[in-house]
Amino acid sequence: MIPPSRVACPLDTPTPPLKPEFLAMMVKGVSLILSSCDHALTPSVMRAVGCRVEDGGGRITAFLARSQSRQLLADIASSGRLAAVFSQPSTHLTVQFKSRRVRIREGNAGDRPHLQRYVLSMEDELGALGYPRGLASAMLSHQPDDLVAVEFMPDEAFDQTPGQRAGQRLGAA
Q1: CA torsion through residues 130, 112, 107, 79, sign
Q2: What is the model's pTM?
Q3: What span, in angstroms and rounded, lies between the C-alpha atoms of 90 and 120?
Q4: Per the domain annotation, does 15 fall within a domain?
Q5: What pLDDT, in 10s, does the model give residues 123-172?
Q6: CATH at 71
């Protein structure tokens, strides 16, 4: 059973603008880590097993294995807070999102193509670094009936690529 979702920010809040290289990386499918916290600010973190990026990054769905993500899902449902970090292992190009516009839903058959594409992309990404084929498949393995989708609309975005711009808010004047 999925706890009820909370939407703490107005749904008409504009999505921060993304650099084309960030959007291309996200759509391709790279490492995605989600985090939240409880009311005492104790963090919870989990690797996504797939993602879907829509509307130019204005709507993102991250997929989690429920059995491995119980604390994170409870924290998202309770606090309404989510942070998501996309990072390309081969380049360290990294973008972080924060959101209070989050909805949790059951995974469904329509999600499968996005999960398959994500695994293949991660296989290519890790293979380019010399890791054996099959590592990403093992790392992202889950049972289809254990799938949970975390849909969110970014409220804030930050360039977290190592270097001079690390931590810089995207879209800031």
Answers
A1: positive
A2: 0.85
A3: 15
A4: no
A5: 888 888 999 888 888 888 888 889 999 999 999 999 899 888 888 888 75
A6: 2.30.110.10
